[in-house]
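Protein data sheet
==================
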Amino acid sequence: MPEILRFGDRVFYRDWWNASEVASYWRLWNTPVHYWLVRHVYFPCLRNGMSKSMSNFIVFFISAVMHEVLVSVPFHMIGYWSFLGMMGQIPLVAITKYIDKKIPGSSIGNAMFWLSFCIVGQPMAILLYCVDYFTMKNSASCEMVD
């Protein structure tokens, strides 16, 4: 795809599936978005005197809002599952970073990532959006019948 679009940077992701902590996953998953957020959100927050923790929180918050917009707009409804899922990553980042520091080279953080994000997290969010969407559609059709 980058060759077709003649996009200069052909590295869109790195080996995110091997991430030993959730913070590594977010750096490796979508490198153009990661670099954009670092350049335009994280570093300006640091330059304005915010702590690294607060800067990370703001980056996750903005990313969570954008994820929610990208999911909610196609459904024509305002949801909050994607937002909550993204914000729920913040404690998971701290937990997996702690585990990686205490047990270096362990795959516990990677297993936590796969379990919380790929096996439970995204499928659960999709199901919750579908339930909300069908509830919204059914309540609208019931109102039209009455």
